[in-house]
Write a structure and sequence with these properties.
With 119 residues, the chain is mainly beta. The protein folds into 2 domains: 58 residues, Immunoglobulin-like, CATH 2.60.40; 36 residues, no CATH class. It has 1 helix and 6 strands, in the order E-E-E-E-E-E-H. The strands form 3 sheets. A two-stranded antiparallel ribbon has the order 1-2. It has a two-stranded antiparallel sheet with strand order 3-6. Strands 4-5 form a two-stranded antiparallel ribbon.
Amino acid sequence: MKEHKGVWSACVDDAWSNKYYLYDLRVYVPGQRAILENFVTDPYSVDLALNGVKSRLTDLNDRDTQPTGWEESRSPALANVNELSIYELHIRDFSANDATVPSAHRGTYLAFAEHNTNA
């Protein structure tokens, strides 16, 4: 690994592709007056394990990691940047109280995949 201006980088071979990893950090915590060890995900990773517990080395151009229809999917045309609206939504809030979503999927990512619901 190499550090340059506070950013660490590493070159790895293809054997690392699709592997999960965590960073092992030791940081001083003033409130506890101690150096503590933390295992954390990579803030720059483009892929995370279920519930974000680990980062994954993923090549987004690899067809094996792309969902069906990935290449055909396009963002809608945007004539003017003023047409943009950005919202933040908690996964649970999207469907937790929506009776049209099957109860097992309410408040979960699976609610986004349901068809013919109000969600």
